[in-house]
Structures are given as C-alpha cells and as structure tokens.
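Risk register update: the risk of archive-format incompatibility is retired. Evidence:
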Amino acid sequence: MATETASTESAPRPEMLPIFLRLGDVQHVLGVKRTTVYRLVKEDPDFPQPVKLGERAVGFLRSEIEAWAQKRADMRGRAAA
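Archived output:
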C-alpha cells in the first residue's frame, strides 16, 4: 500500500507539466529529427506553428503537439481504406 502512495506522489501532476515544448522536446515527443520538425512547420498546414517566447526563443504549445499527433494516429486506419 505504501508503494501506491509513493508512485502517485512521484508522478507529475498535469498542472506541473510544461505548457510550451522547445524544439528538442518536440523532437523527443514525436520521435523525429530537427529537420523533420522544420519541414512540418513549413509544409504541413495542420502542424502547430511555433510561438515566440522571447527575443531568441520559440516553443510549441504542448496541447497542440499532442492533438496533432493524436489526429495523425487516428488517421492511420483511414488512409488504407
């Protein structure tokens, strides 16, 4: 029973997850290389566009990246049909 409490406490709470993902995080989440992310930004109208966070920093909304990935996963059966 103590292990259940410990595992629950160590899991990140949704409100503690980052809102923005940097390029490296997007690469890791999607399992693609940097050039693929750049290509998706440029060529895929459905791919989330980066948000300017500062003078030299951009990020991607985590929720938009997750929604895009889920949409792609949902489409996988339809392409063959």
